[in-house]
Amino acid sequence: MKALLVRLSSIGDVVHTLPALAALHRGGWEAGWVVELPSRMLLEPNPLVAQVIVAPSRKAFGWARALSALRAVRAQRYDAAVDFQGLWKSAAWARLSGARRVVGWDRAARREPGSALLLLEAITRGEALTRKETPTHSEPLTRSGSGHVIDKNLELLRPLGIEAVGLREFPLPFSAEAVTRVDAGLQGLRGDGLVVLNPGGGWASKLWPAALFGQLARELRQLGLHPLVSWGPGEEDLASRVVAASGGAAARSFPTTLLDYVEIARRARLVVAADTGPLHLACAVGTPVVALFGPTDPARNGPFASDDVVVRRAPACAPCYSRTCARHAGVMDGISLEEVRAAVERRLALARA
């Protein structure tokens, strides 16, 4: 049996769909995946993904590229296509794939409710989520209602006969080249005290101020730790501002790919980040984290290890998944340095224990 996963973006959402890939593999399914370019690196060298189809994004859309990708999908003759994203564009890829079954959530559970019209099987969410499998890193909380987005993704596999809610297995590809680059790039930083600070992310409204990250780096250095500021495309200036605010206590990371960052996270004692892809990658590899949240809901897409610590300022509109919203603008500024430092000390103590 062959299944097509449709989860186009973003990096964190792709990470949260990886347990569904693992569950399909456990169930004996061969898997393909339709994804947009930024997350391609997490899937192309992955031995559990037989076919990766890169969908052109809205900004880079071209009919020739889209039709070529669609022909590649249809040639595989998938038995089922699963739309994990709940948008018109993801539902369109699933429906046009030619799969015999096109599965996704019904209107009530979709970000764009009308896109349910493109499905062949619109699934209604259950009222409760319970653990059915033993997770990789920690026991997840039994949740009622919406639950963690990982479990929402896993629940969507039930129509295919796969029961895996609670699974926390993240099949990330191994890259020997990334290991070599990271080993060379981290020379001079003591691995046993490495703390990764990730100040960037896709939404400005979810980010903690650079000046406070810099001050946190000073505090970490006083604890004998070695802060490293990670950054992605377009975030070089932000990382430099954190380093400047730290007074030299933090070092700016060398340029990294997603797989480089995974290897850095594996070596870190702690990662401090907002609700963004690097946070979710750190959780996926089992690195201790302190997560900084504002408008979005950490119960839905935050850390799942019981020892990880969340520091949050919830605005009046929470949970809110609008990139721009007058009600949650500036809410992250209300998270104090003292709160984050206390969270860091608590998480490090739990890791030592």
Topology pattern, helix = H, strand = E: EHEEHEHEEEEHHEHEHEHEHEHEH
* Low-confidence sequence ranges: 127-145
How big a fraction of the residues is strand?
A: 15-25%
- Could you tell me the CATH topology label of the largest domain: Rossmann fold
Whole-number mean pLDDT: 91
Supply Rg: 20 Å
CATH class of the largest domain: Alpha Beta
Shape: globular
CATH superfamily of the largest domain: Glycogen Phosphorylase B
Largest sheet: 6 strands, parallel
Known CATH architecture of the largest domain? 3-Layer(aba) Sandwich
Amino-to-carboxy terminus distance:
45 Å
Domain count: 2
What's the total helix number? 11
Number of strands: 14
Question: Within the largest sheet, what's the order of strands?
Answer: 3-2-1-4-5-6
SSE-based structural type:
alpha/beta
Helix residue percentage: 25-40%
Q: Can you tell me about this structure?
A:
The protein is α/β, with parallel strands linked by helices and 353 residues long. It is built from eleven helices and 14 strands. The strands form three sheets. Strands 3-2-1-4-5-6 form a six-stranded parallel sheet, with helices on both faces. The chain has a six-stranded parallel sheet with strand order 11-10-9-12-13-14, sandwiched between helices. Strands 7-8 form a two-stranded antiparallel ribbon. The longest helix has 16 residues, at 11-26. The protein is globular and about 60 Å long.
Indicate the topology.
Blueprint (H helix, E strand, L loop, with lengths): L1 E5 L4 H16 L3 E6 L13 E6 L8 H12 L5 E4 L4 H9 L4 E5 L15 E3 L4 E2 L13 E2 L4 H7 L20 H10 L8 E5 L11 H13 L3 E4 L6 H10 L5 E2 L5 H10 L2 E5 L2 H8 L4 E5 L4 H4 L7 E4 L24 H16 L1
Parallel strand pairs: 1-2, 1-4, 2-3, 4-5, 5-6, 9-10, 9-12, 10-11, 12-13, 13-14
Antiparallel strand pairs: 7-8
